[in-house]
Each structure stands twice: as structure tokens, then as C-alpha cells.
């Protein structure tokens, strides 16, 4: 099949129209995108031309410039969580024709190449775990972090919608090279940094076989977004308050509750409603912080001291009980 040279991923071109939701978003914040567009000799009306292609470097640098102008390090995520998914052709067909979540992803993955050949989607099932991956096929010197943040928000929304009553953010892990471009624990999901490779969403394979019956109206307004935020708020508040206190080995709900603004019993009740406990969240948080520090190259001794361990071997033992690997084994395998 013949392809336009500009749409060939080997040449690294992308549709300029992808930038329009970002320009519209910062415009609603009262910030003009004119300066950023003029830097690349682009006019605002070019964003409405679906046949206009520019190099990926231009798209990514534009998004980074808009993030700087808005002073919003999570700009892409905030744009993605507000975009309507109901009108996106691959999503719309998958949502209206699929009988199960697995069929939904299959249709979605097969339709995307009809609109874009700069991204490749895949679904892998290994035992009880499924991985939905997004691989960028364009080469760029500029960071695609805000494009990836936007995609992360969109995928989080349709996984939430598709999982229905089975939705449990604790069972969903986003693995990305750019976790700093996303809020901490977005909607309660786990967020892990990876050094290279595709953006990934890890989730229970059992979800693939669940009946799929999605009301597209839920994805056309703020109803879904509000529900996701409500369900994740207790866990996010607890973890955000606990993060600066992790040097205390005796850390408990009673120490964190005043920071959150709740009495300890109320905080524990809120976490129970979200399907978790203070002790469980503290273990998970310490492991996530330790993993990130290991990947940054910090020493096991320094990490153990930051958690209040006087003996690094005690930290290493805790890490192994939670992950099945020693800190050094984790670093070598990641």
C-alpha cells in the first residue's frame, strides 16, 4: 500500500492537528500560544488542517513550550483527561461493537493504523497479567513526555470505563519513561519509571473476558473524571501526606491523619472503603520510592537511611519480602 512520505514513520512526521487540544486548553487558562507557534513559523489556523504534517520534534517542542508557558508540568495529562473519547473513531467503533473488554482492545488496536502509523499498539498476555503497550515509531531529540502524559490519561479513562465494577486502581500499573509528566499515583494507579521502551499499562488478564457494555455518554463530559478522582482521593491524600514522613519506621495513620485533616479512625475508614489499609499503603509507597531511587543510581545504604533503617540489610530484607528480589537484583533487572 502506497504511503505519503510525510506519514511514513521513518521520516518522523506527525499531524499538526494533534497540538490543537493543547493550544485550546492553555487558551482557556488565558495563555496565548501565539509565541510558541511563531517560534516554529506556524499559524493557528494550520492546527485545523488534518493534512498538515510536521516533524515529531516540532510537535514535542511545541508541547514542552506550552507546558512552560502554563507552568504546568502535567499539561499533557490534564489535556488528555479532558478530551472527548466518544468521538475518536477507533475508540467509538470498539466501544459500540465489542462484547468483551478483550474484543474492545482488539478492535481498537486494529483500527489505529488506519489513522496513524507513527504509533504501534500491542496487547500481551502472560499468565494472569496483561500488558497494553504503546510504542512510538518516530525518532525525536525532543522529549515526548507531554504527548505520553496525554495518552496516559486517555488510556486510564477507557480502562476505568471498560473494567466497570471490576475497576481496582491498585491492580493497574503504568510503566513509563516519563512519570514526572503525570500526577503522583494518577487516579490511584501505580506509576513506575522505566529506562527505555514503550509506554505500558499492566492490568489483570481476567478483565479481558468481562462483558463489555459501555455508555459513550460517560466519556463525553466530566462525569467519568469526577468519579475516578473521587474513588482515588483517599489513597492519594494518604500517600501524598506520608511521602515526606517515610524516614519514620514507626509511621502510622495517627501520624499522617493530621496532615490529611482527618482523625485517624476516619482516615482508616476512608482507606478501607477504597479497599486498602494504612500499613499496606505505606509498604507499597516505600517500595515504589525505593525502586525509583535504585533506578536513579542511589546506593542501597543511602536509601535504607532515608527510610530510617540503621542497618542496610534490614532494608534489603524488607525489599525482598515485598518484591521477591534484593535491591541489587532489582536494579540489574530493570
Shape: globular
Radius of gyration: 21 Å
How many E strands?
7
How many structural domains can be distinguished in the coordinates? 3
Q: Please work out how many helical segments DSSP would assign.
A: 14
Strand order of the largest sheet: 3-4-7-5-6
Biggest beta-sheet profile: 5 strands, mixed
Low confidence ranges: 1-10
N-to-C CA distance: 39 Å
Strand content range: 5-15%
Summed over residues and divided by their number, the pLDDT gives a mean of 83
Helix content: 40-55%
Order of helices and strands: EHHEHHHHEEHEEEHHHHHHH
Query: Would you tell me the structural class of the helices and strands?
Result: alpha+beta
In short:
This protein has 14 helices and seven strands.
Description:
This protein has 334 residues and is an alpha+beta fold. The protein folds into 3 domains: 5-74, no CATH class; 89-216, no CATH class; 232-333, Homeodomain-like (Arc Repressor Mutant, subunit A), CATH 1.10.10. It contains 14 helices and 7 strands. The protein has helices at 20-28, 34-39, 56-70, 75-80, 89-97, 101-111, 145-163, 223-242, 253-260, 264-273, 278-295, 300-306, 312-323, 327-333; strands spanning 13-15, 53-55, 119-126, 129-136, 173-176, 190-193, 199-204. The strands form 2 sheets. The chain has a 5-stranded mixed β-sheet with strand order 3-4-7-5-6. It has a two-stranded antiparallel ribbon with strand order 1-2. A hairpin with a 2-residue loop joins strand 3 (119-126) and strand 4 (129-136). The protein is globular. The two termini are 39 Å apart. The relative contact order is 0.09. Mean pLDDT is 83; it is low at 1-10.
Amino acid at each position: 500500500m502506497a504511503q505519503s512520505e510525510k506519514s511514513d514513520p521513518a521520516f518522523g512526521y506527525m499531524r499538526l492537528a494533534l497540538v490543537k487540544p493543547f493550544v485550546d486548553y492553555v487558551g482557556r487558562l488565558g495563555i496565548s500560544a501565539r509565541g510558541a507557534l511563531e517560534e516554529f513559523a506556524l499559524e493557528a489556523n494550520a492546527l485545523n488542517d488534518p493534512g498538515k504534517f510536521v516533524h515529531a520534534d516540532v510537535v514535542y517542542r511545541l508541547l514542552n513550550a506550552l507546558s512552560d508557558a502554563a507552568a504546568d508540568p502535567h499539561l499533557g495529562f490534564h489535556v488528555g483527561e479532558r478530551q472527548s473519547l466518544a468521538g475518536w473513531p477507533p475508540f467509538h467503533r470498539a466501544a459500540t461493537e465489542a462484547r468483551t473488554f478483550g474484543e474492545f482492545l482488539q478492535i481498537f488496536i486494529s483500527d489505529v493504523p488506519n489513522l496513524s502509523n507513527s504509533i504501534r499498539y500491542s496487547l500481551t498476555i502472560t499468565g494472569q497479567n496483561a500488558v497494553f503497550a504503546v510504542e512510538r515509531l518516530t525518532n525525536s531529540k525532543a522529549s515526548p513526555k507531554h504527548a505520553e502524559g496525554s495518552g496516559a490519561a486517555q488510556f486510564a479513562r477507557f480502562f476505568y470505563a471498560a473494567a466497570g465494577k471490576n475497576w481496582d486502581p491498585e491492580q493497574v500499573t503504568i510503566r513509563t519513561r516519563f512519570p514526572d509528566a503525570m500526577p503522583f499515583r494518577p487516579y490511584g494507579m501505580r506509576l513506575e519509571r522505566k529506562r527505555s521502551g514503550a509506554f505500558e499499562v499492566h492490568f489483570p488478564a481476567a478483565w479481558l473476558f468481562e462483558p463489555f457494555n459501555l455508555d459513550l455518554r460517560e466519556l463525553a463530559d466530566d462525569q467519568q473524571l469526577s468519579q475516578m478522582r473521587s474513588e482515588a482521593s483517599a489513597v492519594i491524600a494518604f500517600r501524598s501526606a506520608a511521602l515526606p514522613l517515610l524516614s519514620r519506621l514507626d509511621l502510622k495513620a495517627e501520624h499522617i491523619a493530621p496532615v490529611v485533616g482527618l482523625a485517624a479512625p476516619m482516615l482508616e475508614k476512608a482507606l478501607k472503603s477504597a479497599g486498602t489499609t494504612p500499613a499496606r499503603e505505606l509498604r507499597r509507597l516505600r517500595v515504589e520510592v525505593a525502586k525509583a531511587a535504585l533506578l536513579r543510581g542511589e546506593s542501597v545504604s543511602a536509601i535504607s537511611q532515608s527510610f530510617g533503617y540503621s542497618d542496610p540489610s534490614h532494608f534489603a530484607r524488607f525489599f525482598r519480602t515485598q518484591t521477591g528480589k534484593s535491591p541489587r537484583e532489582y536494579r540489574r533487572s530493570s
